[in-house]
Amino acid sequence: xxxxxxxxxxxxxxxxxxxxxxxxxxxxxxxxxxxxxxxxxxxxxxxxxxxxxxxxxxxxxxxxxxxxxxxxxxxxxxxxxxxxxxxxxxxxxxxxxxxxxxxxxxxxxxxxxxxxxxxxxxxxxxxxxxxxxxxxxxxxxxxxxxxxxxxxxxxxxxxxxxxxxxxxxxxxxxxxxxxxxxxxxxxxxxxxxxxxxxxxxxxxxxxxxxxxxxxxxxxxxxxxxxxxxxxxxxxxxxxxxxxxxxxxxxxxxxxxxxxxxxxxxxxxxxxxxxxxxxxxxxxxxxxxxxxxxxxxxxxxxxxxxxxxxxxxxxxxxxxxxxxxxxxxxxxxxxxxxxxxxxxxxxxxxxxxxxxxxxxxxxxxxxxxxxxxxxxxxxxxxxxxxxxxxxxxxxxxxxxxxxxxxxxxxxxxxxxxxxxxxxxxxxxxxxxxxxx
Length: 435
Description:
eight-stranded parallel beta barrel, 39% helix, 435 residues, alpha/beta, 14 strands, two-stranded antiparallel ribbon
């Protein structure tokens, strides 16, 4: 029997020019105004999504890759998604919103106060997508860190943020209007923290929370999975989406959680994907066949996209040679590099880009082009065979793309008992842990 799965949406361009480079741009929405995003999140809530995660990259990149990142609006411009969140909360009732927060660039005291404020304003529908990007460090006068050290800093950051959230204890707020006794200062944790990366004092100047905001984290490296297992409520997973691969990936996250004294019930592992849903198997076959032999233009588009993601100019490299050792700096995550080179680091760059430009069929588990029914088969299979928690669908936060992706899919998933029809109470945490 089919079991409910959790679904969310990854706002993958961030608070940037939605639909740029596609005909959807001609709908005429203004990406700098809230209406576009409010219309989209209303549709996502109607569709039963648990949460929306907003990507963000503070930096436009290194001087060498600026043009690559802005020419097609891959890496910028981006406005701050934290400041968009209140508009999204105003347009919805149940949907969780989790903007990206850089655990290093944003001081922990400021992050804790902002998160506490938005958690109260939203009825506990606020979450944090915690990232360890080091490429933006120079904009704040910070020293860049290697990959694992960035996770060390993120761990200290998050532990400090949580201590601040709890710095009023269970008795700090009194709220007795009989004698106008609002709070008890003696109950507050006026701590001093001086760690490897941060110095800060408590308590937090914000009302205490009934429940902590949900912590979301990406990262497929061993260090990233360890961070998720120890600290996160949601791990954004990237892996070949076969039952065996999903079982293996989930097992590594859950082992990390167990090592940290947590259980499988404390974390949701949600796999990120971008399906291309079409009306018939014949159309899906045609699209996949057309991608089998990528044109030079398709290879260049793939190179520009991966250059932007990695802040590394792949266009300057020899297409017919492997990527030279040392091409990727310390700021590039292991997951990003693995996403491009896979298990074939010695393959010519042309072959790596061609692999990214090719599409595959959902029905054969070689890709994500297919019909709504074929996608539902895939969801049902992973739920039954891999004990999967659910999926994060990825795309622009634009009404045309949301309806194109979900218009046929939602009815199919609901008829099969895979997608929620209603929400409970309790905000984003209840959405993720009510089944």
